[in-house]
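Why should sequence recovery work at all? Because a backbone constrains its sequence more than one might expect. Tight turns favour small or flexible residues, buried strands favour hydrophobic ones, and helices have their own preferences. The token representation captures these environments compactly. In the example below, the structure is given first.
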């Protein structure tokens, strides 16, 4: 083929062909670049601004397009973007709901009683505790009670004491009596002296019978016996035979078990139905669930700020002497029933900041809500405020939602709530 020359400014046919191919290539390149800027179409799922991509295991991952999880490498799934109405809400995918076994229930009213059962323990009635102490210094020559828990009757012999001071006082009393007899009528007022010496012996722990014997015989032993002025069980022994004691020193401690204290620790949320002087019953499992009537005679006015626990106490009679300190008991308070808004106990989360539940606000959308609770009975909790009938609450998986909230918002859900 004869080619055109470049004379007179004309192109050859070859030059024109090359130029045509270059133009076509440039057009295809522009078309290709233009098509690369368009969103990639996913079969069955149109790309839209209302969808984001996340990982079923790491919900904090939010990507604008398909791919794999940068944490675990799993394939991301498409999730509709749900507008959250407040910072108290979170969103879960369908897979997360299934994996977390999240279950919900509609809030309704139920019959709940004011009766509450609290685990407790029997303790000593501290009003009936007493201490046997030495009235005068000396040495314990003989102990007649050596066992903790031993029962002491009023008048039982407890110990023998050797005391130089007490022996001198005995001798003084005997001498004054002898002088009174031998002197007969005298200007000395022996009656006053005798009475003073006798009172000294009584003050130092001798009883009237011992003093009368001393008066009638004029003789005395160097050991002085001391007797119990009250009854009770020995709760502590502070001395042993041969030990010296000082005036006022503790010999032993006694507890009268005719009455006992049944004590229980109660959360502040349970205190609404408990009042001082209210009739209550004590259930004793160790005595075939025997019920003993009593009344609440003490409610601790101080609340432990760490665990929000209070103390209640009931005084009960121990008529058969079958009750012992340390026995486990249950305290039953109240017996009224009323209709009230109730939720399952496992749906309520309580910590030092307050009490909350999780509500389902829509498909996959959950909101934390602070509530005020009343009494609890048979795994049901009374709701005094924060919910209304018809609300849908989470009954299983609430702790999972707390963790998810921290993932999505980066903070504890209770941090921004008002008490």
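From this structural description, the recovered sequence reads:
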């Amino acid at each position: 083929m004869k080619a055109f020359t470049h004379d007179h400014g004309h192109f050859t046919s070859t030059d024109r062909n090359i130029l045509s191919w270059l133009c076509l290539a440039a057009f295809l390149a522009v078309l290709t670049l233009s098509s690369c800027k368009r969103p990639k179409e996913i079969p069955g799922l149109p790309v839209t601004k209302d969808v984001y991509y996340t990982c079923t295991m790491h919900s904090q991952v939010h990507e604008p397009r398909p791919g794999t999880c940068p944490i675990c490498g799993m394939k991301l799934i498409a999730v509709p973007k749900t507008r959250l109405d407040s910072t108290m809400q979170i969103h879960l995918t369908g897979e997360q709901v299934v994996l977390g076994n999240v279950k919900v229930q509609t809030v309704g009213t139920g019959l709940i009683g004011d009766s509450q059962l609290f685990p407790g323990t029997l303790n000593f009635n501290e009003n009936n505790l007493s201490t046997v102490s030495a009235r005068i210094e000396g040495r314990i020559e003989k102990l007649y009670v050596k066992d903790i828990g031993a029962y002491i009757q009023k008048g039982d012999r407890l110990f023998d004491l050797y005391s130089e001071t007490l022996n001198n006082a005995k001798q003084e009393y005997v001498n004054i009596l002898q002088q009174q007899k031998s002197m007969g009528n005298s200007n000395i007022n022996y009656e006053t002296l005798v009475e003073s010496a006798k009172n000294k012996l009584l003050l130092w722990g001798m009883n009237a019978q011992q003093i009368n014997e001393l008066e009638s015989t004029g003789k005395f032993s160097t050991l002085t016996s001391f007797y119990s002025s009250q009854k009770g069980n020995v709760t502590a022994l502070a001395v042993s035979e041969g030990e010296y004691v000082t005036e006022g020193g503790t010999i032993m401690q006694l507890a009268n078990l005719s009455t006992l204290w049944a004590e229980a620790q109660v959360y502040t949320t349970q205190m609404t139905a408990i009042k001082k002087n209210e009739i209550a019953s004590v259930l004793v499992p160790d005595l075939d669930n025997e019920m003993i009537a009593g009344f609440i005679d003490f409610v601790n006015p101080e609340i432990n700020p760490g665990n929000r626990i209070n103390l209640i106490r009931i005084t009960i009679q121990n008529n058969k002497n079958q009750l012992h300190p340390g026995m486990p008991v249950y305290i039953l308070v109240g017996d009224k029933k009323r209709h009230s808004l109730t939720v399952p106990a496992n749906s309520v989360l309580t910590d030092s900041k307050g009490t909350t539940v999780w509500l389902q606000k829509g498909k996959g959308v959950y909101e934390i809500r602070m509530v005020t609770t009343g009494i609890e009975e048979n795994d049901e909790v009374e709701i005094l405020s924060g919910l209304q009938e018809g609300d849908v609450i989470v009954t299983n998986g609430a702790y999972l939602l707390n963790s998810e909230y921290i993932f999505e918002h980066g903070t504890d859900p209770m941090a921004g709530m008002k008490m």
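A few observations help interpret the result. Residues 149 and 390 are 59 Å apart (CA to CA).
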